[in-house]
Amino acid sequence: MSPTSLQFRLTVELIAISVISLTSVSIWAGWRMEQTLINGHKQMLEYIAMRFPDQVAMYMETGGINAGIERTSNKLSTARLSILVKSAEGEVIAKSVNNPDNVVDIAAIVASGNIPTTPQVVQFADRYVVMCGNGLTINGKLVGQVYLSQDITNEQRQLNNGIYGLAMVSISATIILILAIAYRIRTALAPLAQMSQIASDISIEDLSIVKLQLAKAPDEIKGLAQAFNEMLFRLSESWEQQRQFVGNVSHELRTPLTVIGGYLQSLLRRGDNLSVYQTQAISTASAETERTIQMLQDLLDLARADSGNLHFRQSPVFLNTLVAEVAVMSEKVSDRPVKVSFSNQDSNPDVDQDDIVALADQDRLQQVLINLVDNAIKYSAHTVEIKLETKEEQAIIHICDRGIGIPLPHQQRVFERFYRSDDPSTRSRDGTGLGLAIAKSLIEGMNGRISLRSKPNEGSTFTITLPIWKPTL
Ligand code: ADP
To answer: For a Cys staple, 26 with which of 76, 170, 208, 432, CB 3.0–4.6 Å?
Structure first.
């Protein structure tokens, strides 16, 4: 998942909000628990510490200050509340005696040092006490220190267990929330992902048939899909109009150009009194006219193929013979060797052992082969090879060259109309960029496939796969 995707952002934001909310609720609940369990003891200890000097002053009237302190501490101490009073010199004046054995000895806590002046929870060994120590001032005179300690081990353990439970519940709830949020967002955005998948798979040929159908999507996305479908319809209409326009223009231009070409040819044949310059100019004009007529013918073929009006005469084609003829023809025109090799694995008992017979339109297949061999010769300086083989009831023709090759990002694009390499050093002058587009539409019209394997500077192999012809009994 990309960090800039809507799914990622929504998931992270919702998870962050949930974690912050859950943590806040847990902290608040923990604080409330502490208030209920511990704070009462702190307040009580604060009250006793505040009242202690008054109590001593009251009891000392009958028997001196030390007796007053001792009586006060005996009176106030309980099973869990311990009191220790030390003189200014550090001698113990009074120390309460607590009954339960498990109450921590207050003298030991005081000896460990650092006693807070306001009541605080202190852990001592495995027990917890609320503890405070203050100067004892009687009638304006500092007579020593009074230490108070309330054992709250049970309450503190209850609080610890409560906080632990709360943390566990919060963590589990957070994990469940994270999973639920991630799942929900993924399912909510799935129709969008589906939409983009369908949209990116639509080819120009499917424009009129493909429709986005998102049955389970929410209304907003259905609305988007509806708008997308309408856009597809408009696109398909304008594509159709463009196709018709190209077809009509090609048709209208071809006739006058053929007439011009004819006149130029006859002028060249009969023009004995033409100057060298005039002969050259007419030859160039004639060659360009031929090239343009060929391009218009290609465009017409493509327009016919697009509208389904290109008819194929499917019949058994002896590929060995056809390929050998194409090789001879290309060798003659280009003066370059074209090698042919055959390998027939699943041979047909009804025909010669080595013959490979495909079901195709012979003339159109020949046109495609000439085009591919012509390209192979144009874009390489070595021998071109045509390999013929059969595999799993398919006839396969490879046209291999060891030329300039085609970089990977361009390999799908070479079959597009008017695509030509943008590198002027590797681009032929006389090409139109329509040859491979026509080859693809002709081969597909014969129920075959055309594919390409190529590596820059190593060469290219165009592969045509056609159905093997099977005689009907
Ligand atoms: P063109 O008329 O330009 O040859 P094509 O449709 O036949 O048009 O080819 C399209 C482009 O594909 C060419 O311009 C060229 O860049 C590239 N191409 C075709 N065949 C080969 C090949 N055998 N080796 C390298 N590049 C090729």
So the answer is: 170
